[in-house]
Write a structure and sequence with these properties.
Layout lengths: L1 E4 L6 H4 L1 E4 L9 E10 L2 H8 L16 E9 L11 E4 L14 E5 L3 E3 L6 H5 L2 H12 L8 E5 L4 H12 L3 E6 L2 H10 L3 E4 L4 H9 L4 E6 L2 H11 E9 L11 H6 L3 E4 L7 H17 L5 E7 L3 H10 L4 E6 L1
Helix pairs in contact: 4-5, 4-10
């Protein structure tokens, strides 16, 4: 099969190779998917570069956790009727060496999610890592019906999924963005209120919903937003955060403690499998209904995967980059 891989961590052009590798065979409980489109997420970049202290636990890695394709083989214990299903795949390269940057990948059967025919493959090809993270940020604490939810970076890959999940869950959704065009996009995506981040951000939010009226903050920059979140949260509120600039940020302990705030730190590779499956179901429904949409910035052929990785490293987080297999 045609595939891309790396045998050591480093810069994209230094370590990524393309060529022929043996096609994998599905083990019991697995399916094999012939990949059409492979999605790239910042987590894929980090694993390849060795960010966050990550190391290679396999001598060779085919990158990317997300993709879209068709099941062409099944392992023992999986119904043969699944052959021919159009699916989107998540966590293909989580604690496994073989991701979706190849003609074929194998995953546990539950991680190949049936994709309705009306959904464009490009919309689902990069859904897994950011989509499930955004869903978990909203739903880890239970129902958000009737809550005020603040989503920071709401037009990013994770933010869009968090926004859609909160809105569909019955919350009033407040979104923060960096630019005026992103504010319009957040409102189009379903936010009830959208604010451009700046010195008066707190005042804008208070004017919209009142002081200390936020129940949940779904946050992409814990180090930068912790003071704002602490100020805006009501007693018993929560923060769900999945990224930070500073690895050891200062935390206003007593202010959080006096409000009995819960802080959840999220890592996509390690969510409970039941939560992954709940997210997969809800995200597919959101795509089907048109409540979740991703802007696709570029699609690269497999032999240009290094350029695709560089695009992700340098480009806007509000649009996606795909690799066509």
């Amino acid at each position: 099969m045609r595939a891309a891989w790396y045998d050591k961590q480093g810069a994209a052009r230094d370590v990524l190779q393309t060529g022929e590798l043996p096609a994998p065979e599905p083990a019991p409980g697995e399916v094999r998917v012939r990949i059409e489109l492979s999605g790239i997420h910042v987590g894929d970049i980090g694993k390849r570069q060795g960010y966050w202290g990550s190391v290679m636990t396999y001598p060779r890695v085919i990158p990317h956790g997300d993709g879209v394709g068709v099941i062409d083989a099944v392992g023992n214990g999986v119904a043969a009727e699944r052959i021919g299903e159009r699916v989107w795949v998540y966590l293909a390269q989580s604690y496994r060496p073989g991701g979706t940057a190849a003609e074929y990948t194998v995953v546990p059967a539950d991680r190949a999610v049936v994709l309705p025919a009306q959904i464009d493959a490009a919309q689902a090809a990069g859904l897994g890592i950011p989509g499930i993270t955004g869903h978990r940020a909203i739903m880890a604490g239970g129902s958000v019906a009737g809550s005020n939810v603040l989503v920071t970076g709401a037009t990013g890959a994770v933010g869009r999924a968090a926004l859609a999940t909160a809105r569909r869950g019955g919350a009033t959704v407040l979104a923060t963005v960096r630019r005026a065009a992103e504010r319009d996009a957040a409102l189009k995506l379903g936010a009830h209120h959208a604010f451009i981040a700046g010195p008066d951000l707190r005042d804008q939010i208070v004017d919209a919903v009142g002081a200390e009226a936020i129940d949940l903050v779904a946050d992409l920059a814990f180090d930068k937003n912790i003071e704002l979140a602490t100020d805006l949260l009501r007693y018993g509120g929560s923060i769900a955060t999945y990224a930070t600039g500073e690895t050891e940020p200062a935390v206003p302990f007593w202010q959080l403690a006096f409000k009995n705030v819960t802080v959840r730190f999220l890592s996509n590779d390690d969510f409970p499998e039941a939560a992954n499956q709940d997210a997969a179901r809800d995200l597919t429904a959101a795509l089907t209904a048109g409540d979740l949409h991703y802007d696709i910035r570029a699609t690269y052929p497999l032999d240009q995967i290094a350029a695709a990785h560089e695009d992700v490293e340098q480009g806007s987080g509000t649009s996606r980059v795909l690799v066509e297999i």
